[in-house]
Amino acid sequence: MSYTLTIPTLETDRLILRAPGRQDFGPFAEFYASPRADFVGGPLTAEGAWRMLAMEIGHWTLKGFGRWTVTVKGSDKAVGMVGLFEPEGWPEPEIGWDLFNGHEGKGYATEAGAAARTYAYTVLGLHTVISLVKPANVGSARVAQRLGARHDGDFVHERHGPMQIWRHPGPDDLTDGGMEAYA
Questions:
Q1: Are the C-beta atoms of residues 71 and 16 closer than 8 Å to each other?
Q2: Which parts of the sequence are annotated with region: Disordered (predicted)?
Q3: Collapsing DSSP states into helix, strand and coil, what is residue 21?
Q4: Interhelix angle for 108-122 vs 138-146, to 10°?
Q5: Are 111 and 147 in contact (CB under 8 A)?
Q6: Angle at 162 between CA 159 and CA 167, to 5 degrees
Q7: Nearest to 135 by CA among 105, 180, 165, 175
Q8: In angstroms, rounded to a whole number, what is the distance separating the alpha carbons of residues 123 and 5?
Q9: If we measure between CA atoms, which residue out of 120, 175, 126, 119 comes closest to residue 148?
Q10: What is the mean pLDDT of residues 136-143?
Q11: What is the 3-state composition of the chain as percent helix, strand, coil, each rounded to the nearest 5?
Q12: What is the pTM assigned to this prediction?
């Protein structure tokens, strides 16, 4: 039996945000096996990474939104996962970003995060979104700041522990509704 789920594709100046799939498992598993995954529930075995990838895909079915695989235009190789996330136990919809090994420091998380936020406001009709950041994850906090988010309290998750809530500007606080407003 086959099941078809339509996940929209987003495009920015440098990136394509597309549906996650099996073809992404290699870089996904490599990321989750590395210390870079410490802030997002890793490190994980290959079996754990498989379950995490299945959760990312299943989130789209359960919530009607989710995170995209990020690729650089001209290549279909996954460089990260960015998008909207609100699993059970989350305080509200989040824009989350994970860049895979070797792809950090290029502005991809900020660019893809802005596209995800535009989607949240213009397509989903959300009026606010957050990003959850582990207190020691300075790089992720910097991405939130570049996107205009402000530290707005703290949250303790039953499995992930203490996290900071970074609140993004709402659609009315941005200069216009297009992605260029977030760059």
A1: yes
A2: 162-183
A3: coil
A4: 50
A5: no
A6: 115
A7: 165
A8: 17
A9: 175
A10: 97
A11: 35, 25, 40
A12: 0.92
Residue that the structure tokens 């100046």 belong to: 13
Neighbours of 136 (CB within 10 A): 10
Cα–Cα distance between 79 and 66 in angstroms, integer?
17
* String of DSSP letters for 77-125: -EEEEEEEE--TT-SS-EEEEEEPTT-TTSSHHHHHHHHHHHHHHHTS-
Q: How would you class 176 by CB atoms within 10 Å of its CB: exposed for 0-12, middle for 13-18, buried for 19 or more?
A: exposed
Distance of CA 172 to CAs 94, 144, 147, 149, Å? 18, 18, 15, 14
Instruction: Retrieve residue 91's tokens.
Output: 């305080």
Q: Which of 44, 46, 48 is nearest to 34 (CA)?
A: 44
